[in-house]
Amino acid sequence: MTTFSKGKISTKSLAATGMMIALTLVLAFTPIGMIRLPIISITIAHVPAIITAMVLGLPEGLIVALSFGCASLFLAATSPSSILDPFFVNPLVSILPRVLIPVTTYFVYHGLCNAFKKSKHSETISILIASAIGNLTNTFGVYTMLYLLYAKEILEKSGKPALTLIIGAISTTTLYKCIGIMVIVLPIVKAIKKFSSNGNK
User: Fold this and answer.
1) DSSP state letter for 43
2) What DSSP assignment string belongs to 106-169?
3) Domains of the chain (ranges plus CATH)?
4) Is 146 within 8 Å of 83 (Cβ atoms)?
5) pLDDT(102) > 50
6) How far is 20 from 64, CA to CA, in rounded Å?
7) Is the per-residue pLDDT at 89 higher than 70?
């Protein structure tokens, strides 16, 4: 009975992970989740990785995040639209920061759940903060790698120092995107967890 239950959970997890990968690709390859601008694209395609890390676990989150990173690399290689897109052909820019998203999300979420377990709002607080941290991991991870690897090339392409360009990009979009992602992730994670909890009764 125990073996069957584990197998059943594993099958559900695999199916859910596949759905999250499909959602990631839809977001990455359409304007729904990827707004491509002259300097750099604005995306919410990492939202499924954040959700997966909280509702399924770290391994599944890593797989979904990897699909997002690979999609970014593919887009940069096949249809670059911004001046920074060619740099995303490097996996250190397009993939590495993305696979860190579920790592920070997972540990912040579970750490906060344990820290605030006596509070009736522990779940809400944990989801909101973990989703914000996951988003910031993506933002600062990508920009850090761009600066470390391509500061000189960014200056040549844009005519602006890399740090100035990056700070400008972060200051104009990060806060709004962070709030938007928190608003998106909270009800979805709560709904999935409630559904999962009812299904296990």
Assistant:
1) E
2) HHHHHHHHHHTTTSTTHHHHHHHHHHHHHHHHHHHHHHHHHHHHHHHHHHHHHSS-HHHHHHHH
3) 2-199 (1.10.1760.20)
4) no
5) yes
6) 7
7) yes
What is d(CA 58, CA 138) in angstroms, rounded to the nearest whole number? 16
Give pTM, 2 decimals: 0.89
Distance of alpha carbon 138 from the chain centroid: 6
Residue 196's contacts (CB-CB under 8 Å, 6 or more residues apart) are 55
Specify the length of the chain in residues: 201
* Residue 42 DSSP SS3: strand
Q: Distance between CA 155 and CA 163 in Å, rounded?
A: 9
Which of 130, 116, 115, 111 has the alpha carbon at shortest distance from 50? Answer: 130
Q: Is 192 exposed, middle or buried (0-12, 13-18, 19+ CB in 10 A)?
A: middle
Per-residue confidence (pLDDT) for residue 5, from 0 to 100: 39
**DSSP 3-state assignment of 34?**
strand
The tokens for 57 are 């676990």
Give the residue from 106, 35, 125, 37 showing the smallest Cα distance to 65: 106
Phi, psi (degrees; rounded to nearest 5) at 121: -105, 15
pLDDT at 3: 37
Residue linked to tokens 């820019």: 93
3-class DSSP state of 83 = coil
Instruction: Give the mean model confidence (pLDDT) for residues 176-200.
Output: 87
